[in-house]
Write a structure and sequence with these properties.
The protein is an alpha/beta fold and 601 residues long. The protein has four domains: 2-74, no CATH class; 77-173 and 184-216, no CATH class; 227-351 and 373-416, P-loop containing nucleotide triphosphate hydrolases (Rossmann fold, 3-Layer(aba) Sandwich); 422-525, no CATH class. Helix content is 42%, strand content 15%. It contains 17 helices and 13 strands. The chain has helices spanning 2-17, 20-27, 29-39, 42-75, 88-98, 200-216, 260-272, 275-280, 299-309, 325-333, 373-381, 422-433, 451-475, 483-496, 506-515, 517-545, 582-600; strands at residues 77-82, 108-115, 140-147, 153-157, 160-169, 188-195, 221-227, 240-247, 286-292, 313-317, 339-343, 389-395, 413-416.
Length: 601
């Protein structure tokens, strides 16, 4: 009935507008005659029709999108997750793992996955956009099929059909700080999760289930986060992404000097229990630590074992990758929860402390750093800095760090991790070759139960000290052994005698360890000499490349003849090496220039 009514009204309107008298009244007789003259030309009619095709197409597309959006708003709920969110990887991994209709698609994407070839029923686990998470069974690369972008597919969850669509989107123009970067080149990946329902909390609970399942499978893992600073210069809600995960490391697997491990551990445990105490006194609830010392002394390994012990994850930050002070401050404000923030090798960063520099005519010269000292200080303990944080910094040379950065309040506890002492050497040996006592304190190890190992470790320490003292006198370099060097030496012999499969060769392995100590010390001495030579060449090149600094105004003529003594720091691997002065460097520069002239001739 209603259709018949509307159809009759349409015919009435069409009859009226098809009457010539209507157009004479609407346009006028003269205008109508002109239109008749040109409308009778087929070429003009075709051109007019073709010109309207794009508009008609655009209008049709707009109408379709409007109807689709209207349908989605009426019958569906959806959640869009961008790849800069920490929940992106859990959601992506779940939908990829649970999509069962990949074989029915005609056009898909292929990615590299890894699985156990002996298990035909095992489905390879691969994260679509994120980093592949290898397992102990990964050994053979296979092809993993996944739907293409903009291809909607469905999965089942608790009896509901969930529709998933992978897309990409560009940031809004107001978030772009660099006007010379095209917005189209900064598109990021997103996942749209949609369900036919009007219950958004239910869809949210489903997604939360996927996230919980992902992190529950990693409860006994140490998750490593890494900050991916944006290179395009546009603001991002979250720049931290999961870089991978590691097995929980035993706290006793790292051996420091006596009492130092327990000192740091007790300090962190007390800090974690004192949040209310900090807040009551108006003290910022954060704690900073600095581990400094030569390479190979276990700084990074200790942080990993400590994070495992206090059940926290690790967030790695590289200062050199930050674009500017704002990006660093934004990154530190978004550090994932329950993470230890780690800034490694902070002394290798070239700090700009605002000192005046001599202008150079070299147009290619650029600043080596992008973040100022004030930017770092404000990011760590400024007004907008991160609360409830534990920060660990590591370095080799503490003197290369601006004092303001490591003052109390920013760094509350400093720990020097030096070369190995007798306590460390003995405990490393026992934990290396006596797994039954790997969690036992050194004083509580029943040494009378293992007479062979007891005599070996005592003789090992004595021989290393005597041989190192002898070689030090010959090479004029005071030798010290790092924990990493001792572990590497013990590991070499353990692998040589295949102790993992033939533990009965332990006595032969111990004898080999004692017999090859001179070779071990000689290799250490060679490494120290190489480090000293490297530092020397680096200082020479620096002296040749840098212009002579402007001399300060001198009050009398005697000061003009005074020779400045500049100390070139030795590398951290050779703390007892002789210091070089500026006069020695000048002699080295002359030698290098003379060698270059001889090569040219």
């Amino acid at each position: 009935m209603f259709a018949s009514y509307f159809w009759n009204r349409f015919l009435d309107i069409f009859e009226i507008i098809s009457n010539e008298h209507f157009w004479i009244t609407f346009l006028g007789e003269r205008t109508l005659m002109i239109l008749k003259r040109y409308a009778g030309n087929d070429t003009i009619l075709v051109c007019v029709f073709l010109s309207f095709i794009p508009a008609i197409s655009q209008a049709t597309k707009g109408l379709y999108m409007y109807c689709k959006r209207l349908k989605d708003e009426m019958f569906y709920v959806s959640v869009v997750i961008a790849d800069n969110e920490l929940i992106f990887t859990p959601v992506d991994e779940y939908v990829t793992k649970n999509f069962r209709g990949i074989d029915s698609l005609r056009h898909v994407r292929g990615k590299t996955g890894y699985t156990d070839p002996t298990n035909q029923n095992q489905r390879p686990r691969f994260s679509y956009f994120g980093r592949r998470r290898p397992s102990n069974e990964d050994n053979t690369p296979i092809i993993e099929l996944i739907p293409e972008k903009y291809r909607e597919f469905a999965i089942k969850h608790k009896g509901y059909t969930i529709y998933v669509n992978r897309k990409d989107e560009a940031p809004s123009s107001e978030n772009v700080r660099n006007p010379f970067i095209s917005i189209a080149s900064m598109r990021t990946d997103t996942i749209e999760v949609k369900m036919r329902s009007r219950d958004l909390p239910k869809l949210r609970s489903f997604i939360q289930d996927w996230v919980d399942e992902y992190y529950n499978s990693r409860k006994n893992k140490l998750i490593i986060y890494k900050c991916n600073f944006n290179k395009y210069g546009w603001d991002d809600d979250n720049q931290w992404k999961e870089h991978g995960f590691r097995k929980i490391r035993s706290f006793n697997s790292v051996v420091l000097k006596k009492g130092e491990q327990e000192r740091i551990l007790n300090d962190i445990l007390t800090f974690k229990e004192s949040k209310e105490w900090y807040e009551d006194r108006g003290i910022p609830y954060r704690r900073g630590y600095l581990l400094y010392g030569p390479p190979g002394t276990g700084k990074t390994s200790f942080i990993q074992s400590l994070a495992s012990r206090v059940k926290m994850n690790v967030a790695m930050l590289n200062l050199s990758a930050a674009a500017d002070d704002n990006s660093l401050s934004s990154a530190l404000a978004q550090v994932p929860k329950n993470c230890i923030l780690v800034i490694e090798d902070i002394d290798h960063y070239k700090f700009d402390e605002g000192l005046s520099e001599k202008k150079s005519d070299d147009k290619d010269s650029q600043k080596d750093n992008s973040v100022s000292v004030s930017g770092i200080l404000n990011a760590i303990d400024g007004i907008a800095s991160l609360e409830e944080s534990i920060i660990f910094m590591t370095c080799n040379d503490m003197n290369a760090i601006p004092p303001a950065l490591i003052r109390p309040g920013r760094v509350d506890l400093k720990l020097h991790m030096g070369y190995i002492d007798n306590y460390q050497a003995e405990l490393i040996f026992w934990r290396f070759f006596c797994m039954e006592e790997k969690e036992t304190e050194l004083l509580n190890i029943p040494k009378e139960k293992y007479p062979g190992l007891t005599s070996t470790v005592n003789e090992l320490i004595q021989r290393i000290r005597d041989t190192a003292h002898k070689v030090s006198k010959q090479s004029n370099i005071e030798l010290e052994i790092s924990p990493a060097e001792l572990i590497s030496y013990l590991l070499f012999h353990a692998l040589k005698y295949k102790l993992s499969t033939t533990p009965q060769h332990l006595d032969s392995c111990c004898q080999s360890i004692l017999d090859h100590i001179p070779d071990f010390i000689e290799s250490i001495a060679t490494d120290r000499k190489q480090a000293i030579e490297h530092a020397k060449k680096k200082a020479v090149l620096h002296q040749m490349q840098q212009p002579v600094a402007d001399a300060e105004p001198q009050s009398n003529a005697d000061n003009t003849n005074a020779k400045e003594t500049r100390i070139i720091p030795t590398p951290p691997t050779s703390p007892a090496a002789e210091k070089k002065t500026a006069s020695d460097v000048e002699d080295d520069v002359k030698d290098v220039e003379q060698e270059q002239k001889n090569k040219k001739n």
